[in-house]
Design a protein that fits this description.
Elements: H1 2-13, H2 30-48, H3 58-65, E1 69-70, E2 78-80, E3 83-86, E4 91-94, E5 100-103, E6 107-111, E7 118-124, H4 132-142, E8 145-155, E9 158-169, E10 173-184, E11 187-195, H5 200-213, E12 215-216, H6 219-223, E13 228-234, H7 241-247, H8 255-261, E14 275-281
Amino acid sequence: MPAFLTTLARIAETTDRNGVPNWLATHPQPENRVERVGETVQRVRAAGGEGGTWTTNRDGYLARIDGLVFGDNPEDGVVRGNLFLHPPLRFALEFPDGWDITNSEEQVVAQEPGNKVFMILRTIEPGRGRSLEQVAQQHMRESGYKATDLTETTIDGLQAVVGTYEGNASGIGKVMARGAHFVLGRNTYFIGGIAAPDLYPRVVGGFDRTIQSFRQLSQDEADAIKPNLIDFYTARAGDTWQSIAQRAGNGLVSATTLAIMNDHAIDEQPAPGTRLKIVVAGS
């Protein structure tokens, strides 16, 4: 397990995920868990006594992970490129191209690479007996933001309140935000973007495009979304991580992620005959 978490940390290092302010990060970073899990392993080994037998069964391990879900489970929403899709709740949202997207139990966070510019999707407390504008103002006020303008509009036919806000974000400082509040089914949603005032004019158009991209999925569209799975591939002469990622994995994960998954340095190409873990689309 510590090695697995270290692998996750190596993958995380290839994105800007580490720059997420602590008020947006809801899942502990892998490197923060390695030490804790390592301590647990040591306690288990100590409890087993010096005479305990510890074995490594690679073939058994590979058999157990064959067909394992890789990445997001559709029941919790999935990331596909710059799209976030939630089959059970039947909606889709399109973030700006090239942004790093992290899906957690509480929220979805997207970050512009190289900058502390973020977008967030999450549910909030429903506004029983209150107008949507009142719900929006209270939510943002409790989050430390002050509205500079609010507009009633529609998003995919849903009543919505879109506003511009000023506030402060941990790890960034003073920021401007653009956000939308709306109701779909029993849930009240917030989609918003934040950036420092000097960056805001450049990115606010992208914030608005993402907000307006929210759409409801048909039942057929939702049913067609399947999880990505772990599969295996035997390396051939001339193979590179890039060629395997594209040919065998159809580009579902990057060449860098593929190398790290197989405990290789990124610049260390696989030897012919090596059995490798790859990621394939579910069916």
